[in-house]
Amino acid sequence: xxxxxxxxxxxxxxxxxxxxxxxxxGFIFYPFSPRFIEPRKAGEIIGALxxxxxxxxxxxxxxxxxxxxxxxxxGLDMLQLHGDETPRYCRRFEPRFLIKALELKTQDDVKRAAxxxxxxxxxxxxxxxxxxxxxxxxxxxxxxxxxxxxILSGGLGRHxxxxxxxxxxxxxxxxxxTVEKAPGKKDAAKIKYIMRMIxxxxxxxxxxxxFTGRGDK
Length: 217
Fold this sequence. Notes:
This protein is α/β, with parallel strands linked by helices.
């Protein structure tokens, strides 16, 4: 089971996540997020990571040229569009390196997910105008109906991650606020604990690979 630890702002947190089995790390380039990171700092962290780590840039309603510039400058592997981006906007990027986050509230949202040509869809929850990282649980019943690879996010922690795995059977997990001391500052003990839980629960599972590096085939 692939796991992304999102909202990375410190090198020690990034290394802890990787050492405990995280496949991917998420760097949020949305200035209004409490986990925002400057591209320069993200690039410094990325430069110190093992080559196999998948680096994901998270953007919200950003201009295409800005996304492409940060993607190249920071050495990112994948893009995660977490705002109100349309299928037409998403088609400007290579599908196999693109993830689209959607809030699923109705059956129409599930149908809308099929219009995106992407490597995977993230099922997340929004709250009080925030695009993810809210700690709120996404709708698991709707999430399990999404066609194609699904990354489950939204308030996943030690209290519910095993139930989520059984209920939704996602291709991958995206974990953020539940392994923090404060927004943008991860808790090493929490990362280790939840990663062990996931590893034990999914050992032997043949989940598809959704987080891939630029050089992967």
